[in-house]
Amino acid sequence: MKKNHPPFGLATRRSFFRQVSVGAAALSLTTRVRAQPSSAASAAAPRKLGIALVGLGGYATGQLAPALRLTQGVELRGVVTGSLEKGRKWAQDFGFSEKNIYSYDKMSRLADNPDIDLVYVVTPNALHPEHTIAAAWAGKHVISEKPMATTVADCNAMLAACRANKVKLSIGYRLQFEPHFNELKRLAREKDFGPFMKMSGGLSFKMTRPQWRAERKLAGGGPLMDLGIYALQAACMAADSTSSPQAGSGAPVAVTARELPKQRPEFFRDVEETIEWTMEFAGGARGEFSTSYNQGLDLFRAEAEKGWIEFAPAFQYGGLKVVTSKGPFTPAVPPSQQAGQIDDFARCIREGRESPVSGAMGRRDMVIIEAIYKSAAQGGKRIEINA
Ligand code: NAD
């Protein structure tokens, strides 16, 4: 079946796809390729899904590569990179063919590659839409790193591309699969302490070297996009008990925010350096958070009438310390948060169900982030959210 060109309007993306020669044959091939895993799922030992990493920077190298040596249902079979030399090294290390090394402008050719079932987009924030949409039009399922994009409009374009190509989209929210955070969600759901009514904390670090994270064009914003999103996610997990049942998503009903004066304006020219915000939830719960590139903070606390839970550190790749009003909470912790997150998405693909950390959740968080920036820009005005 002939597919229409992708429904988005950015000139750069249009020109990207002008070079693309994804014809009907390639797309129907892709559809067959995608059908394989689910038919194989009934067999005793289904083949592992093949994943390609898009972007081989710090997170891909330091966290995802080790995780992909532990995943049960997925193996690394390709990369998309600006450096052929780097790609060759990854091919050697992971034992995949050099034909599975792509440059960013040739991502459409993934459509012809049955080795690759899904891609993991690990490029700077503002590039997640372009790379996700390219992968979707090549017929591949996608994990996009957080934040999903830098605007709600781009989230919409990503969701539309994935819908049009019948591929699944998940966001790299590793902590949604972490045992301490599972306990937070359980407490929110089962209300051992009553509904959580007061949340607080944040994530911050002192940025000392220039990088894309301090550039609006690539990062979309400052620490809120990069670090604050963790506290925002945790608040939504804790608030599930207090939001209206049909919402079920833990989204706040309103936010207020205040950007603090910059200590290093030359370093943070067009993004915030520090921002504080409040989230109000439907049942009356409130969360007060902050995030900064100019100090250290790694804390989350949720309080209810009959008890509390505190994470410190809260958002690291491991070594989380959690105490509740009943004492330390020390569950068995798997060796890699990311391996659990990626394997869960593989199961979703095989079983034909949505990821619990779907594109819809990524978009919800972008709605909240846009509202926080809007409040800060309007001097702390209360902004209502209709997620
Ligand atoms: P990084 O700078 O180390 O790597 C980014 C990669 O993108 C590099 O390989 C770079 O070459 C490539 N790239 C492609 N086009 C580029 C362009 N036009 N400009 C700059 N780089 C370009 O960054 P990172 O720390 O690996 O972060 C990548 C993504 O992963 C970000 O979205 C970040 O939020 C996310 N991340 C998530 C976690 C997590 O815990 N879930 C942790 C770290 C980073």
Overall description:
The protein has two domains: 13-167, Rossmann fold; 176-384, Dihydrodipicolinate Reductase, domain 2 (2-Layer Sandwich), CATH 3.30.360.10. The chain is built from eleven helices and 15 strands. The protein has helices at 11-18, 24-40, 58-67, 84-94, 128-137, 152-164, 179-190, 216-219, 223-239, 337-351, 359-377; strands at residues 49-54, 74-80, 101-102, 118-121, 141-144, 169-171, 198-204, 254-259, 274-280, 286-292, 297-304, 307-311, 322-324, 327-328, 383-384. The chain has a nine-stranded mixed sheet. A six-stranded parallel sheet has the order 3-2-1-4-5-6. Helix 3 (58-67) packs across helix 10 (337-351) and helix 5 runs parallel beside helix 6 (152-164). The longest helix has 19 residues, at 359-377. The site of nicotinamide-adenine-dinucleotide (NAD) has 19 residues, from helix 3.
Please sum up the structure shown.
The chain has 387 residues and is an alpha/beta fold.
Can you lay out the helices and strands and say which pair or pack?
Blueprint: H1 11-18, H2 24-40, E1 49-54, H3 58-67, E2 74-80, H4 84-94, E3 101-102, E4 118-121, H5 128-137, E5 141-144, H6 152-164, E6 169-171, H7 179-190, E7 198-204, H8 216-219, H9 223-239, E8 254-259, E9 274-280, E10 286-292, E11 297-304, E12 307-311, E13 322-324, E14 327-328, H10 337-351, H11 359-377, E15 383-384
Parallel strand pairs: 1-2, 1-4, 2-3, 4-5, 5-6, 7-10
Antiparallel strand pairs: 7-11, 8-9, 8-15, 9-10, 11-12, 12-13, 13-14
Helix pairs in contact: 3-10, 5-6, 6-11, 7-9
The protein binds nicotinamide-adenine-dinucleotide.
Nicotinamide-adenine-dinucleotide binds near residues 122 and 125.
